[in-house]
Design goal:
The chain is α/β, with parallel strands linked by helices. It has 17 helices and 13 strands.
Length: 430
């Protein structure tokens, strides 16, 4: 017996020495020592600073999500009804097809391209479910990187949503900018935009915000979209539309899809990313879609086969709950009518807050022009505030926004609009 204990003790001692050596070895050789701290997300940084502020007057104008007039997250009545209907169906939780449910894909394609879309009628479109709009962009950009045979340059409007260039960088896709926003007028720079587009190499991809441009809130007028369509077609560019706010610009989902439908009618082959985060309030459900409008059915079939392979390696299958909600709303006439009312109600609140904010600033005798607040559209507004004015409005008034002066109008409510107007007036008057 003592011999056995001695042997066991020897083994434990040897193991302890090995463990000690392993710990020492790990301390001296870090496989991830090359990884550096990444820069913080601009929007999340604004939100974190807002949360730490103890002032009862604080206002967060950085958040990119809709809030009701009490500054609370809003669950659409149509969504709540759809959830109740789905619950009563006692559905299972089996995998969705790689490209998502076919009914869902057909419904969202028609929502984007229109019921009279020639591409849908001729089965020249490919539409797959994605992880919201960001997932649609990522799949679309990665598909370009792997399969696009022309110039892989992606041209982005200046400015654009911060995630657009980041996705390009992650995939090592070259990207450049074309003029879009004119800081002098706080509006759309049609001439500069067209001049830059005319210099883009044929076959390149041009990214376009379909409506409610993020971050400026500046959209081309219908006749300007017609001009852009003609120039882009003449230059033989591939339009890639990002439509994250359908319904949020004018309150009408058909009006907000004008550009996409115009380009299809004009004969463009195109790509379209859709999201149901904003217009259905399904932020956490991560439900969206990616569509290709192709030249013929054979090309569409080839693209579908390859995009499924791509999705299989990324996340295998999309989630089912969000797509079920969208499908229920778009396929049920009563729910769809309710949803269209819900979308208009949200858009109208945003439009009303823009009006009240502008009136509040002008009523105080501010000498600057503020028409751009009501001319711009959608959730975001480029106020024209300079970085030093942004710093002051945050320090003195506890109002949080990004350094470029962009505000989320959804963060403005009846209870704080006068306070925000007063703050903007004071920082721009001195």
């Amino acid at each position: 017996m003592p011999h056995v204990l001695v042997k066991l003790s020897t083994q434990l001692l040897a193991k302890s020495n090995v463990d000690f050596m392993n710990i020492a070895s790990r301390a001296n050789s870090n496989f991830w020592s090359n990884v550096q701290m990444g820069p913080p997300d601009v929007i999340l940084g604004v939100t974190e600073a807002f949360k730490k502020d103890k002032s009862p007057k604080k206002v967060n104008l950085g958040v990119g999500a809709y809030r009701d007039d009490n500054n609370k997250p809003y669950i659409l009545p149509s969504v709540r009804q759809a959830e109740e209907i789905i619950f009563k169906k006692c559905l299972n939780h089996e995998y969705a097809p790689i490209g998502g449910d076919a009914t869902y894909a057909n419904l969202v394609a028609k929502l984007g391209l229109g019921d009279n879309s020639l591409a849908i009628k001729e089965k020249r479109n490919v539409t797959i479910q994605t992880l919201s709009g960001t997932g649609a962009l990522r799949v679309g950009f990665e598909f370009i990187a792997n399969h696009y045979s022309h110039s892989k340059e992606i041209w982005l409007p200046a400015p654009t949503w911060g995630n657009h260039p980041q996705i390009c960088n992650m995939l090592r896709i070259p990207h450049k900018k074309y003029r879009y926003y004119d800081p002098r007028t706080h509006g759309f720079d049609l001439q500069g935009c067209c001049e830059d587009i005319c210099s883009i190499p044929p076959g390149s991809i041009i990214l376009l915000h379909a409506c409610a441009h993020n971050p400026t809130g500046v959209d081309p007028k219908p006749e300007e979209w017609q001009t852009l369509s003609e120039v882009i077609k003449e230059k033989k560019l591939l339009p890639f539309f990002d439509m994250a706010y359908q319904g949020f610009a004018t309150g009408n989902v058909d009006n907000d899809a004008f550009a996409v439908r115009l380009f299809e009618k004009d004969g463009h082959q195109l790509m379209l990313a859709q999201s149901f985060a904003k217009n259905m309030g399904l932020y956490g459900e991560r439900v969206g879609a990616l569509s290709f409008v192709c030249a013929d059915q054979d090309t569409a079939a080839n693209i579908m086969s390859q995009v499924k392979i791509l999705i299989r390696t990324l996340y295998s299958n999309p989630a089912i709950n969000g797509s079920r909600i969208v499908t229920e709303i778009l396929s049920n006439p009563e729910l769809r009518a309710q949803w269209l009312c819900d979308v208009k109600e949200m858009a109208d609140r945003i439009i009303n807050m823009r009006k009240k904010l502008r009136e509040g600033i002008e009523r105080r005798g501010n000498k600057l022009k503020w028409q751009h607040i009501t001319d711009q559209i959608g959730m975001f507004c480029y106020t024209g505030l300079k970085p030093d004015q942004v710093a002051r409005i945050t320090k003195d008034f506890h109002i949080y926004l990004t350094k470029d002066g962009r505000i989320s109008v959804a963060g403005i409510s009846s209870s704080n609009v006068d306070y925000v107007a007063e703050a903007i007036h004071k920082v721009t008057s001195s």
